[in-house]
Amino acid sequence: MTDIAPLNAPESKTDLFLSFTLLALQGFGGVLAVVQRELVEKKRWMTQAQFVEDWAVAQIMPGPNVVNFCLIIGGRHFGLGGALASLAGLLLAPLAVVLILASVFGGVSDAAWAQGALRGMGAVAAGLIAATGIKLISALRLNPMGMMVCFAVMLSTFVSVSLLRWPLLWVLLGIGSLACSWAYLQLTRLAELEAPT
After folding, report:
1. Dihedral angle sign, alpha carbons of residues 29, 176, 69, 166
2. Which 3-state string (H, E, C) describes 2-30?
3. In CA terms, which of 43, 80, 96, 121 is 20 to 30 Å from 5?
4. What pLDDT digit, counting tens, does each position of 91-143 carry?
């Protein structure tokens, strides 16, 4: 279930390429916060609820989340060409930056200040992800599963993966299957209520 339709759309494959290039170059330590801010709040290519739905699909597919996400967005607007344009935008410039940084960092990687800088960046990345998660909670009010069920799914997933250290595959198959079944039942019930009699 989504709220109102997106107000804008990418103008061309070039727009997709440049937009995802800029997203990727801003996304040090994790691009989730940047993608949400740019695509939902600034470009307005999608609503908050649509972002949450697409990000959820991107997360359960094999491969990196943001790569899956850019393929979904590019493919939705311009088919295979759009998917490839957004993927190229996401990967080309960051690849060049990583290669340059790797060659520079190789000479100083054992220095204490370099190790400290990496630890600090890890903390910042965790904070960005947490802040984005908190910001996206408002989109759950429109979720057909209901806010309390969503919180129960989030909490049980967190406990299973972080505290109990269960393999992600089993958590996805177990909790994910239960959540999908509940959502299907709720959507079916809503469709029956909205159907003309």
Report:
1. positive
2. CCCCCCCCCCCHHHHHHHHHHHHHHCCCC
3. 80
4. 998 889 888 888 877 777 777 887 787 778 777 777 777 777 787 788 788 88
Token pair 């957004």 is found at 86
Where along the chain do its domains lie?
1-138, 143-197
The set of residues, in sequence order, having a beta carbon less than 8 Å from that of 93 and lying 6+ positions away, is 21, 24, 25
pLDDT tens digit string along 19-40?
999 988 887 656 777 888 889 9
Cα-to-chain-centroid distance, residue 46: 13
Q: Burial-class residue 37 by CB neighbours within 10 Å (0-12, 13-18, 19+).
A: middle
Query: In sequence order, what are the residues at sequence separation of 6 or more whose Cβ sits closer than 8 angstroms to the Cβ of residue 14?
Result: 85
* H or E, element range at 102: helix 65-105
Q: How many residues does the chain have?
A: 197
Distance, CA of 145 to CA of 49 (rounded, Å)? 13
Rounded Cα gap, residues 60 and 175, in angstroms? 12
CA 102 to chain centre: 26
